[in-house]
Amino acid sequence: MHKYFLLLALPVAVFFVSGCNPFSYFMIYEYSSSEKPDTVADERMTELEQAREQRMALNPNYREAEIEAYRRSRGISAPTQHVDTRPVSTDELRARLEKQAAERKK
């Protein structure tokens, strides 16, 4: 009886250890798609992309749409803005919108 058990256990063990095992495939897939820390090259590329974005922002030859297209193509998220969650009065909202419109016209 023990001989048959060993003969059946050996192929099962080999299957679970081999690469044909679907569980090992999903484990490899999970590792390859997991978030890994940035390498030195990734950090340097991020620095270069941010430096280029700053140069584009300071250069008056670039339109805002071109800068935004560059950010989207590189996956650069816009800097987080402080959001005020308190209720805003109509007068305050109107003043804020007029201020933004005046800044856009400049």
Task: Give an overview in words.
The chain has five helices and no strands. It has helices at residues 2-17, 22-33, 40-58, 64-74, 90-105. Helix 3 (40-58) runs antiparallel to helix 4 (64-74). The longest helix is centred in the middle third of the chain and has 19 residues, at 40-58.
Comma- or semicolon-separated keywords:
mainly alpha; 5 helices; single chain; elongated; 106 residues
- Return the structural class: mainly alpha
Query: What amount of the residues lies in strands?
Result: under 5%
The first-to-last residue Cα distance is: 90 Å
Shape: elongated
- The topology string of helices and strands comes to HHHHH
Largest sheet: none
- Please state the CA-atom Rg, rounded to the nearest Å: 29 Å
Number of strands: 0
SSE inventory with pairings:
Elements: H1 2-17, H2 22-33, H3 40-58, H4 64-74, H5 90-105
Protein name: Lipoprotein
Organism: Candidatus Spyradosoma merdigallinarum
Biased composition (Basic and acidic residues): 83-92
